[in-house]
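STRUCTURE:
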């Protein structure tokens, strides 16, 4: 079982990795899927074979509430 310091170190590494992914320039991302309401971008991973799917954009149209 890992000690708490190992878990804390892993959490810090994960946080820094996610911050790094979030800081990737816009032109490095490509649209993976787009629908009427959702767009998802991807980027080839430098750490493993495959893609990072970290960006998403959702448009949710709210309907006007009905008062009864």
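SEQUENCE:
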């Amino acid at each position: 079982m890992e000690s708490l310091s190992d878990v804390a170190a892993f959490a810090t590494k994960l946080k820094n990795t996610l911050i790094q992914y979030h800081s990737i320039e816009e032109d490095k991302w490509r649209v993976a899927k787009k629908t009427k309401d959702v767009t998802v971008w991807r980027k080839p991973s430098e750490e493993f074979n495959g893609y990072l799917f970290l960006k998403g954009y959702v448009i949710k149209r709210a309907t006007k509430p009905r008062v009864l």
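REMARK: The first strand starts at residue 30 and ends at 34.
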